[in-house]
Amino acid sequence: MATKPQQAAAPSTAFEKSVYRKVTWRLIPFLFLCYIFAYIDRVNVGFAKLQMQHDLGISDAVYGLGSGIFFIGYFFFEVPCNIALQKIGAKRWLGPIMIVWGIVSGCTMLVHTEFQFYAVRFLLGVVESGFFPGVILYLTFWYTSKHRAKMIAAFMTAIPLSGVLGGPVSGWVLESLSSAGGLRGWQWLFIVEAVPSILAGIAAFVFLQDDPSKAKWLNEEEKALVLRHLREEEARKRSAGGGEHRLSDAFRSGKIWVLCFVYFGFVMGNYGISFWLPQIVKDTLTKDPFNIGLLTTIPWAAAAIVMVVVGHHSDKTGERCWHIALAGIAGALAFAVSAVPGISGVIGLVALTIATACLAAAYSTFWSLPTAFVTGAAASAGIALINSVGNLAGFFSPSLVGFIRDETHSMTPALALLAACCLGSAVLTIVFFRRMTLR
């Protein structure tokens, strides 16, 4: 008698796995590629700086401010963009966003003055503001909390892999296309790396479906399973009193605001690396653009592996807090090592590799926290609010690093600041979320 339920459950479990495997292979690779293109268009200015700074005659502080001003536009438009996605649907929202940001990113080749540089970076932030939080929200239309950390980690491996792919390509473009067709290498860089975003935006109209109920590539039984699991999870959250779902709930939730500050600290570290790693490698190891591109792939390749492993283990155990916090602490310690005055370039790169990998594990697993206790309109607003406030660090981090470099002619104080930010985020996570598990 005892064996019959087990025999009946096995096909159900196998069917569930096959459905989610089908959903994952349909959505994640495409979204992953789109985010690679987005992230390259966001941070390729770090490679362009190696030539552009001299050509335009701008200081480190001007470069840092221009890099970071992207996130001011991002901040003001992210919440309304995410609410719009929920109303309009991913298919008609994400595609146009990708096309427009590709065009704007390509227009960076036209800048000649500081003001033009600031203006195009601000506009790029505005048009890209709906993509990342939109995708995080979009994944909640398909996956329950049980699967979400692993899926978000898989999607966010685009961040480190954009460095793996973008570094060598950017270095090659700077070295090989400099002065081709009367344009400098940094101008070609913006043109070449804008094209994939535009093509991906066109493809999104065909490839994406708004939710499982509209997915023609799922049969009725498969649609019913995915939708049932989503309804059951939302019902559990509401019955437990933890499922904040109204729009106003997101802004009144203390947890949401704590998560804003947690994410802020991790993003400080991430964009300190993203915008300044090429310059650090140039200062300490090599001045050859192509070799700089190759060396910058090392931290990002390590990050791609570590974030997936940690996300998978977090899903398997149902534990979130310590996976995030311990990764943050390890990243802070690695930043501190890289800040030691007189450290060799090789040891510094090893330390920054560890810091990058740990940060990637922390910020990818982090996104399983807010989606665990907000649903409905609160989810769209809450996710966007966290990403908006957190990504203000994308403004402060490169700006402060540039200011510190101009004032001290050293990266040591800047790297120490990034270490402190990561440590602060880890401590907040432990204090407020140590009892939180998802099984």
Q: Main attributes?
A:
single chain, 439 residues, mainly alpha, Growth Hormone, Chain: A, 21 helices, globular, disordered N terminus
Task: Describe, in plain words, how this protein is organized in 3D.
It is a single chain. The protein has about 450 residues and is mainly alpha-helical. The protein has one domain: MFS general substrate transporter like domains (Growth Hormone, Chain: A, Up-down Bundle), CATH 1.20.1250.20. It has 21 helices and no strands. The model is unreliable at about 1-10 (pLDDT under 50).
What's this entry about, in short?
The protein is mainly alpha-helical and 439 residues long. The chain is built from 21 helices and no strands.
Topology order in helix (H) and strand (E) letters: HHHHHHHHHHHHHHHHHHHHH
Which class best fits the helix and strand makeup? mainly alpha
Q: How does the overall form come out from the CA principal axes? A: globular
Helical residues, percent: over 70%
Sequence-ordered SSE layout with sheet pairings:
Blueprint: H1 3-43, H2 45-56, H3 60-68, H4 70-88, H5 90-106, H6 114-128, H7 132-140, H8 145-156, H9 158-176, H10 185-207, H11 220-239, H12 247-252, H13 254-284, H14 289-295, H15 297-317, H16 321-338, H17 345-366, H18 370-373, H19 376-391, H20 393-408, H21 412-433
Helix pairs in contact: 1-5, 1-8, 1-9, 1-10, 2-10, 2-13, 3-6, 3-20, 4-5, 4-6, 4-7, 4-19, 5-6, 5-10, 7-19, 8-15, 8-17, 9-10, 9-14, 9-15, 13-17, 13-19, 13-20, 13-21, 15-17, 16-17, 16-21, 20-21
